[in-house]
Design a protein that fits this description.
The chain has about 350 residues and is of the alpha+beta class. It has helices at about 20-25, 25-35, 45-55, 65-80, 115-140, 160-165, 175-180, 185-190, 200-210, 245-290, 300-330, 340-350, and strands at about 1-5, 15, 40-45, 85, 95-100, 105-110, 145, 155, 215-220, 225-230, 240-245. The N and C termini lie far apart (about 100 Å).
Amino acid sequence: MVTVVIFSTAAAISILFDASFEEQRSRLVDLVKSQARTFESMVTSAETIVRLVERKVLKPDVNRDYETWVQNTLEEHRNLGNADEQYLNDDRWSQINRYRTSDGGTLILRTDITEKKHAEEARDEARENEKKLINAMEHFGEAYVLWDSNERFVSCNARYRQRHAIGADFLKLSANFEDFIKAPAVERWDRAHEDSSSIEEWVDKRLVEHRSPSSSRITIFDGGWTRIHKERLQDGSVIVFHSDITELKEALNAAEIASQTKSEFLANMSHELRTPLNAVIGFSEALKEEIFGPFSNEIQQEYVDDIHSSGNHLLDLINEILDVSAIEAGKLEFNETEIDIEDIISPAAAR
């Protein structure tokens, strides 16, 4: 919607309003009407109109100095300054363009640019949010790269570029993923750590992996362990995260070695303990059965019974330690058998 205002060169300046101006600026029109006899031909000064606009039409702004704005606007009116934009008190925007007429008058076009301003604000907000996202991803602890649904490069952070220095020339807008993955193929492919028998097979597997809904694998990368995780987003684009898990991998390996060492130690100690313990149990059982003759008194018999019972109990503990080692090694075999629950509860109840 465009509003036209014409100022003549006379000292008493006539202005013409079109229908849209009357509709949009009813309060200003009423004020001007109070100073004129008819709406079709009204006489007032440009300065009066400018002051009325600032007071009644523009959105109040504590940072706008009234007199300074009036004088600047009059200066633009006289010298045909650049187009300016005004924020109105009804939350709309107008663009003001001034043109000199052939008789020396001034033609003012007031255009409603509210939709344009809203679109610009939305675009600026989107750009600002994009900058915030890029800044956040730049400080993200992992390397990442984003490819669009057509397998073209979109963005990545500095960490990813650093880790892919070999193919960095392909990390630019519209670069193709297949060209990017082929560039470092010779350097990246390693039979000792990768799942392929040739470079060509390695490239083919990486393409299949990239085009799948999601994937995750662990590989050797620049002398360290890296977890590569890919996710396909709703719009078909693919985001890839490279996580350095070298410390985690080393910690797991150390834990496995420690566990294996412990199991070996327990197995060896159990063997060393069980050998003499079997002798203690065997001899105490022989004494208990009076194979070498009867006891001279009841106290001796009680002591032998205690030695035999304690020896069997210690042997059970050693066997349980061996079972734990077998469980950790994944070699435990279950041997189901019937037991008398009284035999288990009675010794505990007796204590």
